[in-house]
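Example 3.2
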Amino acid sequence: MTLVISRLFNYFFLPPGIFVVILVGGIIFYFLKRPRVLILTAITSASMIYLLSTEPVRDLLLLPLENYAEESSVSYYELNFSEFQGERDITGDVNFSDTCCSGYEDPSSTKVSDCIVLLGGGIYEKSPDYRGNASPYPDAVKRAVYAYLVYKRTELPVITAGGKRAGLESSTPEGEALKYLLIRLGVPEDKIMSETSSRNTYENIKNVKDLMFANGWKRAYIVTSAYHMKRALWVCKRLGVDAIPISTDFKVERGGYTIESFLPGSLAFIDSKKALHEYLGLFYYRIVY
């Protein structure tokens, strides 16, 4: 029941569904002989669509999420110990007491995690370029590539997380699609296990925790998009999962704006929706879980 409620919130309280609701309400008031309400709803919807479709507003929404991810995450480059001698503490910080380049410390000896957890981000079914298999969404591909890079630095086992598309039992689990992609990238199949029954981020982490417990693993690198990291870490804390965040897929434009940045664009609109989805998701999780 809670999953159904969350889906309804996602479709009707976030763009573009919220604008449909607003306009339908305006039409109802029009037939109730209150045409000004329809005009007001149309202007409101158009204004909100425009604002959410511009880069500055998108960045305004995403920046708090990405700043949190950047401040809390271990940098992928910190996992490379071949350029200096140093010691890592459990927070992922490096002690540069000796930064000479005369030698290096084997990454395996500095391991602070037992596994890598790759969180899913949606899939396209039966994609021709994947030989008819499921193809991960662009954000999920970025996560997978980054997880692969982390694997190359650490050679830790990888857990891919994500279940089937809601309401479509014949669909491919996200965890399996991500596993297939990692194998194509070069991760050995015997180094990957998949969690394939979850339906949201909370269940992702919950099922991953069970897999970690079964394998005797106590700590995990969590790889996901920067905008998604805050919610993922909230769930980890709630469930008692010892997680080290590694964020990727940053979307905020940090190089400045041009005139085109203030013109409406579909990509900015989609990213704005993702940010709003995370804020609503955090609010919902704190109430339900």
